[in-house]
C-alpha cells in the first residue's frame, strides 16, 4: 500500500504552536461530521465528498470516449473556464512531459480554449488548427457561460467548414447539466455525445467528474490511478476523528490559526513548473470558496526557484502579511547528474556528480529557513512523487481541507455569488436583451 501525503508544521511552529493547531484540528472534526450529515451551509453541493468511489461506474464510458477521440483526431480542443477548465489543465500539466507540444514522437495534443475572450488567442488557435485534425470537448455546467459559449460557436463553425456538419457533430462531446442550459439544448438538437455534471457538484469541485477526467483520459493519463489516489485520501481523512492525525484537519486548522496572526495571504509554492496549473486550480478552489462576506485567506502562488528571482524579495522582506504552503515532491520522475568540468571555469565543480534534484531540495530547504527568518510561517505538504496517485491525493486533500476551512471561517464554501457582478456589467455594456436599464446606468457612469 502506498503512503498518504504528510504535513510538516516544523516551520510554522514558531508562529502557531502545534498544540494549538492540533486542538483546532480536533474541534474541526465536527465540520467533517456536518459535511457527512449534509447539515452545513451549501449542503446541496456535497457530491464531491464520495466522488472517488462513485465515479468508478463511469470509467469505462470515459475511457471508451477518450480512445475514440484519440483515434479519429490528432488534437482535442477542450473548451471551458474556471472549474470547467482548471482541474483538467492542472492534472495534464502536472503529469505530462514538460514539452509535450514539441515531442517528436506521435502524441495527441490537448489545447484549451474558452478560458478567455482574447481575440489574438482565438486567432492564433484557429491558425494552428488549420492543419490539425481536431475534436472538441465543450464543458459548461450552466451551459450559458459567455467565454466558452463564444469559443464553441467559433470553433464549431470552423470545424463544420472543414469537415461538414455531420462529421463535426460526431467530433463534439458536451459535458453539461443533465437538463438545463443552452449547451444541453444544442447537444440534443445536434446529436452530440454528452456527459453529465451532477447537480450536487460545483465547478471547482468537479475535476474528478467527466469535466476533468475525460480531457485527462484523452491526454493519455491513467484516470483510474488518479481516482485511486483520491480514494486513499478520502479513506484516510473523512472518518478520521483524531484531529492530530488527520492531515486535512491539521492543514485547515494551521492556515486559519496563521491567518489569526495577521497574515491574510497564503502562497502555494511548488519547486517544479509542473505544479504551476495545480496552483491555479488551488487558487480557484480556495478563492471562490472562502472569499466572501469580507472574509477569506487570499490565495496566491509562486513557482520556485523561478519566482525567487522576481517575488522572492517581497516574500522575504515586504509587508509581513504572508505565509507559505509548500508542496514538496521528494523524488522527481527522471534522473540527471551535473557533469564534472575539467577546468571548472564556471566554478560549479562543487556540484559535480550531484543530482539536479539535490540542488533543488537544498534550494527548498534554504528558502524555507530564509523565509522563516523573514517572519514567514511555512506549512509543508510532502508527497513522495508527482504521479497520478499522489496528484489524486492532493486533489481530494485540498477539496476537503477547503470545505473544512470554509466552515472554520464561517462562510459557505460552495457558493460564488461574487462571480456574477462582472457578468451583469459585461452583458449590460454589450446590450444583451434584458440588461437595457442596467446598460444605461453603467454608460452614465462612464461619461
Ligand atoms: O466554480 C465555479 O462554479 C465556476 O468557476 C465555474 O466553473 C465557471 O464559472 C464556469 O461555469 P460553467 O461550467 O457553468 O460554464
Q: Any key phrases for this structure?
A:
alpha/beta; five-stranded parallel β-sheet; 2 domains; 47% helix; 18 helices; Rossmann fold; five-stranded mixed β-sheet; 447 residues
The Rg value, from CA coordinates, equals: 23 Å
Strand content: 5-15%
- Average of the residue pLDDT scores: 96
Q: Which strand order does the major sheet show?
A: 1-10-9-7-8
A few lines on this structure:
By secondary structure, the protein is an alpha/beta fold.
Give an account of the 3D structure.
- The strands form two sheets. A five-stranded mixed β-sheet has the order 1-10-9-7-8, sandwiched between helices. The protein has a five-stranded parallel β-sheet with strand order 3-2-4-5-6, sandwiched between helices.
- It has two domains: 225 residues, Rossmann fold (3-Layer(aba) Sandwich), CATH 3.40.50.10490; 179 residues, Glucose-6-phosphate isomerase like protein, domain 1 (Rossmann fold, 3-Layer(aba) Sandwich), CATH 3.40.50.10490.
- It is of the alpha/beta class and 447 residues long.
- The N and C termini lie far apart (66 Å).
- Helices cover 47% and strands 13% of the residues.
- Bound molecules: 5-phosphoarabinonic acid.
- 5-phosphoarabinonic acid (PA5) binds next to loops.
- 5-phosphoarabinonic acid binds next to loops.
Amino acid at each position: 500500500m502506498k503512503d498518504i501525503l504528510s504535513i510538516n508544521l516544523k516551520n510554522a511552529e514558531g508562529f502557531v504552536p502545534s498544540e494549538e493547531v492540533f486542538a483546532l484540528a480536533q474541534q474541526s472534526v465536527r465540520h467533517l461530521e456536518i459535511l457527512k450529515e449534509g447539515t452545513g451551509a451549501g449542503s446541496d453541493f456535497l457530491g464531491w465528498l464520495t466522488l472517488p468511489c462513485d465515479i468508478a461506474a463511469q470509467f469505462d464510458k470515459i475511457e471508451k470516449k477518450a480512445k475514440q477521440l484519440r483515434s479519429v483526431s490528432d488534437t482535442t480542443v477542450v473548451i471551458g473556464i474556471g472549474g470547467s477548465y482548471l482541474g483538467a489543465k492542472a492534472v495534464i500539466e502536472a503529469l505530462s512531459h514538460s514539452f509535450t507540444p514539441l515531442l517528436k514522437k506521435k502524441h495527441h495534443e490537448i489545447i484549451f480554449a474558452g478560458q478567455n475572450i482574447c481575440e489574438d488567442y482565438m486567432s492564433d488557435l484557429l491558425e494552428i488548427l488549420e492543419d490539425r485534425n481536431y475534436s472538441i470537448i465543450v464543458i459548461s455546467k450552466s451551459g450559458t457561460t459567455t467565454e466558452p459559449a463564444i469559443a464553441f460557436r467559433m470553433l464549431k463553425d470552423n470545424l463544420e467548414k472543414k469537415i461538414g456538419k455531420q462529421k463535426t457533430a460526431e467530433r463534439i462531446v458536451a459535458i453539461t447539466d443533465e437538463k438545463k442550459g443552452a449547451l444541453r439544448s444544442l447537444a440534443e438538437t445536434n446529436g452530440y455525445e454528452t456527459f453529465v455534471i451532477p447537480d450536487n457538484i460545483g465547478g471547482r469541485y468537479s475535476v474528478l467528474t467527466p469535466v476533468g477526467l475525460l480531457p485527462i483520459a484523452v491526454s493519455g493519463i491513467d484516470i483510474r490511478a488518479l481516482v485511486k489516489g483520491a480514494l486513499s485520501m478520502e479513506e484516510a481523512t473523512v472518518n478520521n476523528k483524531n484531529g492530530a492525525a488527520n492531515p486535512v484537519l491539521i492543514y485547515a486548522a494551521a492556515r486559519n490559526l496563521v491567518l489569526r496572526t495577521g497574515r491574510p495571504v497564503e502562497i502555494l509554492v511548488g519547486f517544479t513548473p509542473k505544479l504551476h496549473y495545480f496552483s491555479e486550480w488551488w487558487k480557484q478552489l480556495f478563492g471562490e470558496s472562502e472569499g466572501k462576506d469580507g472574509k477569506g485567506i487570499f490565495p496566491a502562488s509562486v513557482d520556485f526557484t523561478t519566482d525567487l528571482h522576481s517575488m522572492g524579495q517581497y516574500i522575504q522582506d515586504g509587508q509581513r502579511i504572508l505565509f507559505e504552503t509548500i508542496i514538496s515532491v521528494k523524488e522527481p520522475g527522471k534522473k540527471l547528474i551535473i557533469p564534472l568540468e575539467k577546468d571548472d571555469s564556471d566554478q560549479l565543480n562543487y556540484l559535480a556528480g550531484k543530482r539536479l534534484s539535490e540542488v533543488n531540495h537544498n534550494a527548498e530547504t534554504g528558502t524555507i529557513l530564509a523565509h522563516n527568518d523573514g517572519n514567514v510561517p511555512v506549512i509543508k505538504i510532502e508527497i513522495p512523487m508527482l504521479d497520478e496517485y499522489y496528484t489524486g491525493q492532493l486533489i481530494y486533500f485540498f477539496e476537503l481541507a477547503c470545505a473544512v476551512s470554509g466552515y472554520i471561517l464561517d462562510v459557505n464554501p460552495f457558493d460564488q455569488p461574487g462571480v456574477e457582478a462582472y457578468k451583469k456589467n459585461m452583458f449590460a455594456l454589450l446590450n444583451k436583451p434584458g440588461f437595457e436599464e442596467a446598460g444605461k446606468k453603467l454608460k452614465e457612469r462612464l461619461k
